[in-house]
Amino acid sequence: MTAMPLPAPDQRALCPDLELQDAKGATVRLSSLWATGPLALAILPAFGTEMCADNAAQLRDNDDAFVEAGGTLAAIVDASPADGTAFAAEWNLAYTLLCDAGGQASAAFGLSGDGFGKTLPASFIINTYGRITHEHRAASPYGYAAAWELVDEISEITGRKVERPELPLNFAGATTAGLSSPLGGLRADAPTSVRGGAWSCVRCGVGPCELNDVATASGLWSRIFNLQNRRFVAVSCMGCGYTELYRRNSTAIMNIIDFLGNG
Q1: Are residues 31 and 136 in the same domain?
Q2: Are 186 and 147 found together in one domain?
Q3: What is the mean pLDDT of residues 168-193?
Q4: How many separate domains does the chain show?
Q5: Are residues 70 and 180 in the same domain?
Q6: What gap in Å lies between CA 147 and CA 239, rounded to an integer?
Q7: Given this model, what pLDDT does residue 193 score?
Q8: Closest Cα partner for 202 from 159, 250, 147, 242?
Q9: What is the pTM of this model?
């Protein structure tokens, strides 16, 4: 009788099983979050920055997709429980927000810094055995993983596929001669040409998009990029949230808006 070969040992790294306080002040062990299904764990960019809020909100806008995929979503922020409570309330975060003002998580996961004493963001998928099956370590403060990248990784484990949201709008592809902002989501110039075919996100490749009218006021980022008190059209990817900003009075963009709105 031929002996069956033993399964190969799982060489994937074990996730550090940390104990952290959540935004309500309760102590949470990470293993309790992956006990019943895979966990998507995001370590947010430096607290108090635009990138931290953007990453947290992007996850919030897709938290139903994590549940539908059969997983759990949690995030770690370098803030005290008091500041974490205020942050969760301000941004209406329903998922578990863990607070790590002392940098315990950053050290345990071996995260690198940005050169200014701030840890760069990262995301991890952990299976029910506590193994890290996927990781995304950002090379910059705004290089955090798209929410749908993490949802897809959860789906790979559970086999529960989640349909990405579709809109009846498809924005005609446009090239831009603009300047990308540090947030990685804004381009501050009008399209120079319009091509045929459906729009697709340069970040995640998804096609469906949403159009929104945006007015800017004087602020730090708008002053840096000379965007004060102007009107724009924001074209937002429905997959990862990546947004391109176009001047509202551009002839090319107005033609596209008219076409989409039958106006």
Answers
A1: yes
A2: no
A3: 33
A4: 2
A5: no
A6: 8
A7: 26
A8: 242
A9: 0.63
Q: Where are the alpha helices (DSSP H) in 7-146?
A: 30-33, 50-61, 63-68, 81-90, 104-108
Task: Specify whether 92 is located in the same domain as 182.
Answer: no
| Banded pLDDT at 142 (limits 50, 70, 90) | confident
Mean pLDDT of 166-193: 34
Q: Show the tokens assigned to 154.
A: 């959860």
Give the C-alpha separation, 137 to 119, whole Å.
11
Same domain as 195, residue 146: no
Q: Is 73 exposed, middle or buried (0-12, 13-18, 19+ CB in 10 A)?
A: buried
* Phi, psi angle pair for 124, to nearest 5°: -135, 140
Task: Compute the distance between CA of residue 128 and CA of residue 33 in angstroms, rounded to an integer.
Answer: 9
Euclidean distance between CA atoms 213 and 227, whole angstroms: 14
Q: For 72-88, how does the pLDDT look when each residue is reduced to its tens digit (9 = 90+)?
A: 999 999 999 999 999 99
Query: Which secondary-structure segment (H or E) carries 147?
Result: helix 147-158
DSSP H/E element including 20: strand 19-22
Handedness of CA 242, 246, 252, 258 (dihedral sign): positive
Query: Is residue 105 located within the same domain as residue 224?
Result: no
